[in-house]
Amino acid sequence: MPGFGCNMLAAMFLLPLLLNAVLGFKLCPSTCLCYESSDLVDCRSRGLTRVPSSISHGTWLLDLSGNKVTEVHTRSFVGLWSLKILLMSNNSIHILHPQFLEKLDLSFNRLRWLPQDFSQGLYSLQELRLSHNLLQHLDSKSLEDCGNLKKLDLSYNHIRGLDIKALSSLSRLSFLNLERNRLNILKDGQLNRQQTLEVLLLNYNNISKIEAESLAPLRRLSLLGLRGNQLEHIRFKTFLKLQTTSTYLQMSLNPWICDCELQRIFGKINHVRHLHVEDYKDIICHAPAQLAGSVLASMDSQLCIAETASVLVITITVMLAVIGALVKAERNRKNKQASRSVTFSPSSCATLLTEC
Question: How many angstroms separate the Cα of 74 from the Cα of each of 18, 21, 32, 282?
């Protein structure tokens, strides 16, 4: 009898799967809307806490947005061999292991990290949305099996750093959004495999330094967003290494220290045929204090003229000081010589009296 009970339990578990396999086109979760003609299952905002069962095995798009799902496991999609697009934004997911998809939307959840085997089975994934989560770091293992990924959205997280090889497997990536994170540096080597990248959005981070070779591999980059960071100065050679057909740069809302060097760098960038500072007229000086709030573009070459004038004034002042010191030294020397010629010692006076 115990064996019979176990068999009954197994049968009860397997029956929905068998029915799904045989009559999949007729099955639909009671809380969802199913569209047989297009194999779409709409389970949006149904208060679900887990992935529902009895989903047609022919389903290729499953929308579970706006629910209360906290965990997603591989077993949640047993039998859904045709599933290509999974939309799970606005849930409470903190654990997940999805597989066999082309598009995965996990935005607006509570993910603090991606497991190292997160990408296992996601060989066909082309678009991954992870925006508005709590991610703090991206390591070198989490995305290593996503070789076909083309779009990756990591915006609105708490990411402070990327492993140097975190993106090394994403050689087909064309769109990368890292806006509204906490990155503070763009390092050499982080984007070495992203030669097909067309859009790189780094707006509103804490980036204060862009290393010299960090942008060099980006041969197809058409848009680079660096607006709203902590850049005070940049190097011309860093951007000159962007050997692209045409790249638009977004650089405003940074605490720029406006001086002759900065003006020269932007002047050089604006004269490079394939580089375009899209918001050059919106670049505002943060320092020095007397220029705070001034528009860099409105100064033309004034900063360099002012700096040259200051250098000339200082040079002339130093030269005058040196000349004054030399004149004073020569005057003192002559005075000493004159005083010696009219000074008589007692011995010299005795000698003169003797001679007389």
Answer: 18, 18, 21, 49
Give the residue among 112, 104, 116, 161 at the shortest CA–CA distance from 132. Answer: 112
Model confidence, pTM: 0.78
Residues sharing a CB contact under 8 Å with residue 201, sequence separation 6 or more, in sequence order: 155, 176, 177, 178, 179, 223, 225
> What are the C-alpha distances in Å from 242 to residues 214, 267, 273?
10, 16, 12
Which residues make Cβ contacts (< 8 Å) with residue 286, sequence separation at least 6? 232, 254, 255, 256, 257, 258, 292
Token pair of 233 as six digits: 């100065």
What is the per-residue pLDDT across 323-342, written as a single tens digit (0 to 9) for each?
A: 767 777 767 777 777 776 65
Measured in whole angstroms, how far is the alpha carbon of residue 131 from the centre of its chain? 14
**Which tens digit of pLDDT belongs to each residue from 205-263?**
999 999 999 999 999 999 999 999 999 999 999 999 999 999 999 999 999 999 999 99
Report the chain's terminal Cα–Cα distance, integer Å.
157
**CB–CB of 292/264 below 8 Å?**
no
pLDDT, averaged per 10 consecutive residues of the chain (356 residues), comes to 48 46 63 86 95 89 95 84 93 82 95 90 94 94 94 98 93 98 96 97 98 96 98 97 96 96 94 96 95 90 60 61 71 72 52 46
Location of structure tokens 């780094």: 202
Indicate if the alpha-carbon torsion angle 186, 140, 144, 92 is positive or negative.
negative
How many whole angstroms separate alpha carbon 57 and alpha carbon 83? 8
Pairwise CA distance, residues 53 & 256, whole Å = 56
Place of tokens 């999949």: 24
